[in-house]
Every structure is written in C-alpha cells, then in structure tokens.
Amino acid sequence: MRSPRRQGWYAPITLAVLALLAAPASGLTAPTAASEPTARIDAGTVAHTIDQTAAAEAPAQPGSAPPNAAQPAAAPQVAAPPVAAPTLAAPQVAARPAGSPPVAASQVAAPEVAARPAGSPPLTVKAAAPDADATSVLPPTETISSPDTSDCAQKTGPPPAQDESESVPTGLQPPPLPVPATPVGGYRLGTCGFTVPRGSPALPPDISAAAWMIADLDTGDVLAGKDPHGRYRPASTLKLLTMNVLLRTMKDPNRVLIGSQEDADQPGSRVGIGPGGRYTVRQLMTFLLLGSGNDVAHALATANGGVPKTVQQMNAQAKALGALDTKAATVSGLDGPGQMTSAYDLALIARSDMAMSPFAELIATKYAKVPGFGEYQAFSIANENKLLFGYRGALGGKTGFTDDAGNTFVGMAEQDGRRLVVTMLAGTQQPRRQWMQAASLLDWGFALPPGTTPIGRLVSSAAEATAAPGTPSLPPITSRSDRTIGGSSSGTAASIRTTGRVAGSTAAVTAAGSGRSGGSNVIVWIILVLLALMAAGAVVIGLRGPGSPDSEDP
C-alpha cells in the first residue's frame, strides 16, 4: 500500500495532461507574432491602402479607369462659352428598359418674360418647383473618360493660367495655401481618384468633371467623390462664398443701393444694372444668384465696404467654415492670383448657405424683374441653372465658367425627405449639358440604399477641420467609424479595420488573422502554464517524501 501523501501528486499531473490534450481539440494555437500584428503607420499610408481596397471592390466605372491607374488620354473638350438661358433639344435615345429606376428631370427652355408696364408691383419670389410639363431627363447614352487625377497634380493648387488674368508683378505672387496633414472630413477623402462606398452601383458614364462630390445637406455625409480635395478654379460658383459673407454683413434686405458706371463696366457676365438704378439688397442678391452678374457682385461688395474688404472677409469665412482648400481673389469668381477651391469645399459652403435665411428661397427663384435705369426700361431674367426647370425636387445651385476654370457647377435637390448636393469642377458641356451630368450624379445618390456607409463627412468649423483624426471630423466608433474596409483572402489578412481613435498623424491598423481572438489564446496559455507549474511542484513534493517510492508502510 502506497503512502497517501505520495499518491496525492498524481491528481494535478492528470489534470495538466488532460488540459494539454484538450487544447488542440479546442482549436487553440500558440500565439505567434503573425496571429495579431498591430502596426503604427502613417495616416497617408492608411488612406492609400484603404482607398485602393475600396476601389478594387467598387464596380468598374464605365469609360473610366480605376483610381491610381493609368487612363487613356481623353479627347480634348472645347467648353462652350456662357450663353444666357441656352436651349438644347433632348438627345434621341431608346426607351429605358422595364423596371429601370425613374430619372426625373428635363431640359426646357426658359419661357420669354416680357417687360412689365411701369408701376407694376414687383414680382413675388417663390421657391422653385419642377415644371408641370417637364419630361424626364433621359439616361446618358455616351460614355466618356473623365480626366485622370490619380497623380494628385492639383493637390496644392490649380495649373498655371493660360491667359493674363492671374498675372502679378514678380515677387508679389500670393503664397500657396497649406495642405492639411490629415484630409478634412475623413482619411478616404484624401484620395485623388474615385472613392465610393463598398457595394455601390456603377457611377454614371457621362461625368466630364475632373473633380466632383456628392454629399447629404442634412447629415453632412459624403457619399462619393473624385479628387474631392483637389484644388481647382471655381469661376462663378465662388459667388456662393460671396453670398455667405454678404448674408452675415448686410442685414437689411430692404436697404436701397444706387448703381454706378463702375458696376456696369465690370467684365464677364452682367445682369444689366447701371448708373442711377435703384435696387434693394435683396434684389441684388437675387440677381447675383440667378444671372451670375459680376456687375451685381461689384455693387454689393462696394456697399459692403469695398472689394478688397469683401475678399478679405470671404477668405476669413472660408477658413472659419473649415474650407481649407479655398482662397478668393475676386468677389465675382473671375480668375485671380491664387484663387482656388475644391469639390469638398463647395459642398461645405453650399451647406452653410442653405442654413441661412433667405438663401434657400433666393437660390430657388426661377425668374426676377430687374428695375430699369436712365432711359432703359425694366426687364426680366431667368435663372441660369436649368436644373431648376427640369429636375424633380431641384432646390437650386450655381453655374460657372472661365477659360481656365472650364465649366463648374453646384446643384441641390430634395427627394423623399433627403437633400443632396453635387459639386463639379473643371468640367465641360460634353457629352451633354453640365446640369444634366449633375442630374445623373443626383440620381445615383438618391438611389443608394439606406444604411450605405459614407466615405466621409462635411465639417462645420475650422476647429473640426483641423482636429486630430478620429475626433469630431468622423462619427464615434459606436456609429460609423468602426467599419471593415477589406475582404477575406484565403483566411489571412482578412480585413483592415479602423480603430475609431487615431492619435497624431498615425493610425492603428489591426490585420486580422484566422478570425480567432489572439487575446483569448494568450489567457488560455497562461492558465495552462500555471497548471503545468502546479503539476511540477506536486511531483517535487511527492519525490521528497519519507521512504523510498517502493517501500510499504509497516
């Protein structure tokens, strides 16, 4: 009979052996350096990696190459010069297949508005509504290749001007705007190519703009874009920033301003105000948005304290809004030294405008009457933005064109309680008018299924624009920022997941391995090691007991 003390050490050894045998059966593996690596890498590397992953998953864009890939050179486009209230025949296309989603909008000519008799009451400004007889905007029938922007050539500013509009004496060139270390609105907006949500439908094939973006006016969610922070010339879309300032500084809409010859002599597009004409601030703001009058922009800026002061206020306001790609040199949008903006900034500025009264009413106005001056009688003008006349739920927008800027456009619409804004820069009027290209992007945005994860968001202040990544510029981890960007690949490096909190200019990236938790494996192995140590201790105690192992009790 063996001693009970020497028999007791068998129990812990048995437990340890059973635990070791059970470990392989439960699928546990010893932790290795490759099972759960966590790397600290530069935020720009994260953005590049994630954008390439998202681009690989996104459907191919008809007629255009994916981001960061060489694209065939597009045939040079000749931008049409600005023409007041252009009328185009709708393109002849085949009927759409059954079951296709409705595409609302049409291109209709602005009806002629005769001059009203002297003494007639002023026209009432009303919010826009689609024309009752408007036909639907037909789907695009041509596919074009938009300019390749994957080389980020306009990350710091537009290319050199082709004319003398931006010439300044040597040494007086304005300094370039600094490029934020972290893309404003989210890391994915730092891409220079296409960036779209995972699983989104193919983009419209008729978009000519080098840079564009779609965003939600209410939530601030950015839905898609191409070179969203690329810096381009804004042309007359800059008048949205002019209005953002004037709505804050000129509080009395009924204040009467007197036109001047200097107003009438302004270059570029003009509404037709003149010396001695009497106009209220509200009327001039309406003319600025409808007719894009540079004469009107000059008159308002003069009443605001002068053009230089207004330009200074515009730049201060752009910075306050977080529009860090924007620099104004003129109040009208005519090209000037260092003047630039981005598709992102235009959306941000338009969103700010829409939150201020009476901007939403003014931008949606279809027709207005311009008082006469001198021997000239009053006359009527129509809104240059044809989106108002044909697209269902159109809220308004702004057109623009200069030789160096090309065609620029901002369009807004509301459908089913959702308001979207589209911005486009460096575009053309081919393969169809730019407002129709905007309609294609709006249709695409409204067709996104509910719950689609945004690619970023519009900030609301300079503090938010310059905040460290993972702070207010993106939602907290509990809502949107904890999202899987990649897909599985033979069980290894299955995904790249953002942590939701990023410090400084780095991002914590976790590469998931087999899908099992490495932290749990570590805990289990610690327990097994402790059991093994207990078993070893029991063996030592048993061997050091009195007598030899084979002796029997007396």
Description:
By secondary structure, this protein is of the alpha+beta class. Among the domains are: 4-31 and 517-543; 38-51 and 461-511, no CATH class; 204-452, Beta-lactamase (3-Layer(aba) Sandwich). It is built from 15 helices and 14 strands. It has helices spanning 4-7, 10-25, 43-57, 239-249, 261-264, 281-291, 294-303, 307-321, 343-354, 359-363, 387-390, 434-447, 462-465, 477-481, 518-543, and strands spanning 38-42, 194-195, 211-216, 221-226, 256-258, 278-280, 367-370, 379-382, 394-402, 406-415, 418-427, 456-457, 496-498, 506-511. The strands form four sheets. Strands 2, 3, 4, 9, 10, 11 and 12 form a seven-stranded antiparallel β-sheet that branches. It has a three-stranded antiparallel β-sheet with strand order 1-14-13. Strand 3 and strand 4 form a beta hairpin. Helix 2 (10-25) runs antiparallel to helix 15 (518-543), helix 4 packs across helix 8 (307-321) and helix 4 (239-249) runs parallel beside helix 9 (343-354). The longest helix is centred in the last third of the chain and has 26 residues, at 518-543. The protein is elongated and about 115 Å long. The model is unreliable at 1-9, 23-135, 470-520 and 546-554 (pLDDT under 50).
